Amino acid sequence: MITRTVNKNPRTTRGDLVNDLQRAGTKVTKATISNTLRRQGLKSCSARRLPLLKPVHVQARLKFAREHLDDPEEDWENVIWSDETKIELFGKNSTRRIWRRKNAELHPKNTIPTVKHGGENIMLWGCFSAKGPGRLIRVKERMNGAMYREILSDNLLPSARALKMKRGWVFQHDNDPKHTARGTKEWLRKKHFKVLEWPSQSPDLNPIENLWRELKVRVAQRQPQNITALEEICMEEWAKIPATCLDLAVADHLAILFTVPVPLPTQRAKRTITFRNTKSLSAPALTSTIAAHLASIPLTTTVDGLVARYNSALSLSLDSLAPLKTRTVSFTRSAPWFTTELRALKASGRRLERLKTRTDLAVHREAYQDHVKAYKEALSLARSSYYSTFIGIQQSQPRMLFSTINRLLRPLDPPHPPGALDLCSKFLDFFQAKVDSIHQQLLVPGPPPTSTAPQPQGITRPPRC
Q1: Residue-wise pLDDT tens digits, 397-443
Q2: Roughly how many angstroms between the first and final C-alpha of the chain, as a whole number?
Q3: Where is the signal peptide (predicted)?
């Protein structure tokens, strides 16, 4: 019960478990609970703080990873990474471990001064690449789009020149509203800067987070006492950061593992269709062309000959004005309960949809919405009616009845994974050879011959095909 509860809700405390067991009639101590969980490989840890990821963020991060999965290292070395960070004078950035004696925790030597909300702080903007750190500046006012563009204008290009970036270097910044403002995008476009498309809620993907952590650790070790000293120390330590710290790995956040259901594409049946584009035909052009072809075909006196002569002239005219075209198209077979009336309703709905899109009038929108509602109701009614009739007919055939109900209640089986059919064929050949070998032993007198059945390679157990 203890392990099951913790696995279901990792935030459960030992006190909660003690109370739950006591209500169930079992009295245990917190130490017993700790020992039990430790034997199961569970230990108490501080929960890591991670960006809140919605499904759209997960999809964007997955798309970003797939697009850049095979990018060579040279491409990443040609990227200038940028970001803003806040450094507090007295705050969590100054946390340090100390050695002290028992009951000496309040001695001034063993404490770090703190104030509410971290006290004073400074906001910094910086950039770097694999070749070294770029410029670091202090943002003294509340940053907006105009100020951000001024910072880029004064510091981005000088940083690129100082770092000796190659031609076509790429600039990275996150999706902060100041970064994605229309004015900022227009400014970057006019300057012909290549901007790396960045997924939202992904600070852990930016390697500059490692640089910020290194800077904050170095600043905390020097223990600045005022804002002026804090700014000076930040600039000094930024310039001292060696190239070995500029690791282009992701930031030191906990890796996030997630599962994204990706449906396998179904292979639709294909067929080749032949058609003529007769929409562009005009009556005068068709008439004159038919007359010209009729003049070139000898005249006959029989009815069949006249019909054949006109058919030939019409066919030649269509071939010249609207030649035959072929196209391979994919199609899906209609469901057995999809009737002609439903098909007509669907076509009518498409016409209403086009009319609504073209006019954007309220009356057409309401008509389209009412039609969609009626179409869904007719669809559900036709499906229910079809299967009710089908089940009623198959009452005397239990196997067919069971198969139909099973197909309705159970989802379709997923498609076979790649190579599954080949694997089943190999096992079929293997067991067929075994059967042939046994038949040979039964029919041929004398000592049993050795089996010549080929052993499947890399297979230890037949699958359940």
Answers
A1: 777 777 777 766 665 555 555 566 677 677 777 777 877 787 777 66
A2: 38
A3: none
